[in-house]
Amino acid sequence: QGFELSAGYTHSNSKDAISLTSSQAFSNYQFASVDGPLEGRNLRTSFFHVPHKVTVSGTVNLPLRSSFSLIYIGRSGEPYGWIVNGDANADGINGNDLPFVPGDASQISLADPTQFAALDAFIESQACLRDARGGLLERNSCRNPWLNFLNARLGTSIPTIGGQGLDLSLDLFNVLNFLDRDWGLYKQVSEFEAGPRFLNAVGFDAANNRPIYSFAAPRSIEQTVYGENPSGSPAGVNRSRWTVQLGAKYRF
Predict the structure, then answer these.
(1) What are the C-alpha distances in Å from 207 to residues 42, 80, 99?
(2) What is the 3-state secondary structure (H, E, C) of the chain?
(3) What pTM did the predictor assign?
(4) Cα 55 to the chain's mean position, in Å?
(5) Could you report the per-residue pLDDT of 122-158, keeping only the tens digit for each?
């Protein structure tokens, strides 16, 4: 009677030809990874695809009309894809072309062929690139790390007059980070469908009818998101920081 527990699991599968993530027609196409011909894009994993989500919540009633609640939400990270730095398909838009992932040194033209060993090692380190060897990387075939959220609430109700009352609440968001600064961190590779730049297009190999690339391994892959994300979206505010919220509501 004094304790309530609920749990849920959601599995989903969503695909689309283009994930509309921007506010204008041009930018929707500008920031969308090109997978297939412009007039007939391939049906691929949607940017909004969340294949797994787990929710567990519990509430215990305390003396003096008070209660304490915990809620955990764990879900798959957003999908993304590595991108060529440059206009690989000559459509006039930079930074939306998915790379061809070479299976061996003969399948790519590098401005400096000695870079292939480093490129090959980097491809092996990324599961989605490794699985795409010998072909084009599919849109949204990579995925950000699993996300964990744990929040707590302490609430009490104080009766006043005539059936009225005052409700007070204390919310603690990101309990894990409150307990340990190394816990509850929001880590991601990319917040956009068109992810990090992976190869630099620096020329064209006429003999093999393909671009010439240079490669430099990214300094870091997963990054911890603390404050506002680079695009200025409020969704990125305080993702990895614990915060406290005090609330009061008068019922009449």
Answers:
(1) 29, 32, 19
(2) CCEEEEEEEEECCCEECCCCCCCCHHHHHHCCCECCCCCCCCCEECCCCCCEEEEEEEEEEECCCEEEEEEEEEECCCEEEEEEECCCCCCCCCCCECCEECCCHHHCEECCHHHHHHHHHHHHHCHHHHHCCCEECCCCCEECCCEEEEEEEEEEEEECCCCCEEEEEEEEECHHHHHCCCCCCCEECCCCCEEEEEEEEEEEECCCCEEEEECCCCCCCCEECCCCCCCCCHHHCCCCCCEEEEEEEEEC
(3) 0.81
(4) 18
(5) 999 999 999 999 999 999 999 999 999 999 999 999 9
